[in-house]
Amino acid sequence: MDKYCKISKKCGGCAYQGIPYEEQLRKKETQVRKLLSDICPVRPIMGMEEPYHYRNKVHAAFARKHDGKVISGVYEEGTHRIVPVESCLIEDEKADAIIGTVRSLVNPFRIRIYNEDSGYGLLRHVMVRRGFQSGQILVVLVLASPILPAKNNFVKALRKEHPEITSIVLNVNAKRTSMVLGERNIVLYGKGYIEDTLCGKTFRISPQSFYQVNPVQTEKLYGKAVELAGLTGKERVIDAYCGIGTIGLIASGRAKEVIGVELNRDAVKDAIYNARINGIKNAKFYAGDAGEFMTVMAAEGEKADVLFMDPPRAGSGEAFLSSAVKLGPEKIIYISCNPETLARDLRYLKKKKYEVKEAWPVDCFAWTNHVESIVLLSKLKSNKLKHIDVELEMDELDLTAAEKKATYQEIKDYVMEHSGLKVSSLYIAQVKGKCGIIERENYNKAKSEDAKQSQCPAEKEAAIREALKFYGMI
Ligand SMILES: C[S@@+](CC[C@H](N)C(=O)[O-])C[C@H]1O[C@@H](n2cnc3c(N)ncnc32)[C@H](O)[C@@H]1O
């Protein structure tokens, strides 16, 4: 039985509240399939076993009500009114408890709450980050000024309730902005960051650095991304939009060289540090705009074998993509949290001699309508057209949208792998016909109308149907 959140309507964070989890997964998979229907086959979505309390980063805005009561939570959609949140089905429970304690300390410590309209007051937000494997906890108090009265006692009181906190940072955000974090950090306790382990590597994560919010799904995401890259140890790999270097460092043991680029300087410092603490010597990280970086690399005639790209929701830009094509990697692994910009960028790459092989949706954001995807692209060989397989007699040339999703050979391979049965193209064509996937006339008919055709046996039909389902064709 799925759990239900009473404040979901006001909060607006979980658009899929009230929808059973299995159905959420189907909706997300269908969404990706629709958006990529003319681009590539979409594999089944990777869902969560326990889709609750997965968010390892929680942040709460603070306000004081007219009666003096302190509340914390999220902004009601489209407004600056705070919806009080004491517990949340997707947030880390320990983080919620820590935010509750900060709330309870505000009045005893006479901390003024920041007022968005007047710009007066001190406490704006609290952000908590928890390492999934390490259990380390970082609390970031976002204040409008660097001075927190009685700060040592405040830290002591917070740690008394939560001795598991490993670091507390005062972040100064004096600007009248909707950005949560300011630029300056003052460490009040501990190291000022947390470390966590992902895919066997340790990562330092500073307050301002990006880190995927769902660690269980992130391991699946990165595992699949590295698997699709099919590295042999000889490759020059680019990790673009690399954050704290996660993907590149995880891939580094199977590559000759890794080059990472990232806009956020704090994240780049983390990436360099992370290479060091993991004893990785074949990775370099650069701070800068990924598009500009790729443009310079391409202009200097550099080459790369594999490109991992994991841009923000807006996707990538023309400068990045056109330079990526010039660098000519054999494979591109595109990781995206926005299937719409993903589809746009894939269309561009498809026109530039890249074959979009397959997409894997991953549910990193249960109960919300967001979905992450990984896509494998491979560079078309110039002689590719000469290698049209005999199976292309079964013609990939005038396929319907559903047909495009898997070739005859892919269906045959799937059937062989999953049921051990060998099936002919004719049988596949017959089953497709039954499923309403329009075939060219001559697939189904023998040359002579009178000639007898063998009919697909029931057992093979069931196996072919299973493959068609797998590829989202029926
Ligand atoms: C979706 S995150 C991915 C980070 C990393 N690959 C990971 O999995 O943790 C996107 C990253 O792109 C960075 N970014 C945003 N715009 C950028 C740009 N124009 N050039 C380089 N990096 C950028 C962000 O700071 C963020 O770290």
From TrEMBL:
Alphabetized PROSITE patterns for the sequence: SAM_MT_RNA_M5U, TRMA_1
Binding locations of S-adenosyl-L-methionine: Q212, Y241, E262, D310
Active site: C337 (nucleophile), C337
GO biological process entries: rRNA base methylation
EC number: 2.1.1.190
Source superkingdom: Bacteria
UniProt-listed Pfam families: tRNA_U5-meth_tr
Principal EC category: transferase
GO MF, any single term: rRNA (uridine-C5-)-methyltransferase activity
InterPro entries named in the record: MeTrfase_TrmA_AS (IPR030390), SAM-dependent_MTases_sf (IPR029063), U5_MeTrfase_fam (IPR010280)
The keyword Cell cycle appears for this protein: no
UniProt keyword annotations, A-Z: Methyltransferase, S-adenosyl-L-methionine, Transferase
Stored PANTHER family: RNA M5U METHYLTRANSFERASE (PTHR11061), TRNA (URACIL(54)-C(5))-METHYLTRANSFERASE (PTHR11061:SF30)
Family (UniProt): Belongs to the class I-like SAM-binding methyltransferase superfamily. RNA M5U methyltransferase family.
Protein name: 23S rRNA (Uracil(1939)-C(5))-methyltransferase RlmD
Gene designation: rlmD
